[in-house]
Amino acid sequence: DDTIVLADLAKRMGIKASEMIKKLMMLGVMVTVNQTIDFDTAVLVASEFGYEVEKAAFEEDTFLHIEEESTPGAMVGRSPVVTIMGHVDHGKTSLLDVIRKTRITEIEAGGITQHIGAYSVKTSGGQVTFLDTPGHEAFTAMRARGAIVTDIVVLVVAADDGVMPQTIEAINHSKAANVPIIVAINKMDKDGADPDRVTRELSEHNLMPEDWGGDTIFVKVSAKQNQGIDALLEMILLQAEVLELKANPDKHAKGYVVESKLDAGRGPVATILVQEGTLRAGDPVVCGVHHGKIRAMLNDRGQQVESAGPSEPVEVLGLSGVPNAGDEMIVLDDDKSAKQVSEHRLQKQRSIGLAKTSRISLEKLFERM
Ligand code: GDP
Ligand code: MG
């Protein structure tokens, strides 16, 4: 990214942008104040004014603690992160609801779950984090940038409907991301329920239960009648054990945006799924192109928390803008570094945007010719 906005270069050289534009025009380069010029052009025009241009790359990495390697001894077990996927109306939301209701409100009386896109559920065998359906979008966005935050996919297939297009899509997503699948055959209470047919159809996509000679876990459930939910949770924990999930909680936190919004009263709000390290209130962060100091953190029950470790979802307040689902959040040393990294990213985004618009206007120009 060796470009600079013309106005910035002119300002740094202490000359008028119009002077520079004129000089560039004489050199055969047509640019406007807000457009970017490449390094070679900058060198050329600067020399015309008696300046030398030196490349001073902005090394984002020096701020980001990428050298902070995880030492094996520092790794501790973490809970699994589970995404529920499947065809529309096969019962994803119902399943998540029944898991949440029976596991949370029973234990914490009066605990009202609020929608934050990710839920931490206490089971007798340990904590499990579930990503909601919008997490599905985040999952896709994150997979696109090679960041897989889901450990296990629960593939919901309605017993009376069988494998449908989005079922296959979910299978393909999971396989591409190398995430193990647990099949939940839902709606077992229905008259037309035919789990054998579902199994047969899934076997065509290489998902086979053990008694068919495969290695995929199949669980029969009914979200409506709260049947088989314990078995499903048990299988999730069993699968998690096999995966030996670990993370280092003692480092600068890193996590991903699962959901985000602009709240009228609270400003930008983002649900962050912490991947490693421990996120704390007051931490200076960069999140996508935005930055901020974490003003407050809330869990999925709307309770204020002081910290969140690996696999824990939290709602975060205090960002300078609304990040995108799938954006990474990183803790930096201080507010100044956070702001610098954010500004650099914004500038980069702007120059990419400008490059796009100038190309578009050129294309339009050619159209008219
Ligand atoms: P989603 O689109 O995958 O999130 O599906 P929903 O959870 O919204 O469920 C779609 C419909 O199926 C709703 O009318 C649910 O009440 C119904 N449903 C979900 N699970 C079951 C179940 O186990 N049995 C029956 N009979 N209906 C169910
Ligand atoms: Mg739904």
Give the secondary structure arrangement, pairings included.
Blueprint: E1 3-5, H1 6-13, H2 17-26, E2 36-38, H3 39-48, E3 76-77, E4 81-86, H4 92-105, E5 118-123, E6 126-131, H5 133-144, E7 152-158, H6 165-176, E8 181-186, H7 195-203, E9 217-220, H8 229-243, E10 246-247, E11 254-263, E12 267-276, E13 279-280, E14 284-287, E15 290-298, E16 304-305, E17 307-308, E18 313-319, E19 328-331, H9 335-368
Parallel strand pairs: 4-6, 4-7, 7-8, 8-9
Antiparallel strand pairs: 1-2, 3-10, 5-6, 11-12, 11-19, 12-18, 13-17, 14-15, 14-19, 15-16, 15-18
Bound molecules: guanosine-5'-diphosphate and magnesium ion.
Q: Overall mean pLDDT score?
A: 86
Bound molecules: guanosine-5'-diphosphate, magnesium ion
Q: Classify the secondary structure makeup into a structural class.
A: alpha+beta
Between the first and last Cα atoms, what is the distance in angstroms? 32 Å
Main sheet properties = 6 strands, mixed
Secondary-structure element order, N to C: EHHEHEEHEEHEHEHEHEEEEEEEEEEH
Strand content: 25-35%
Question: In one word, what is the shape?
Answer: elongated
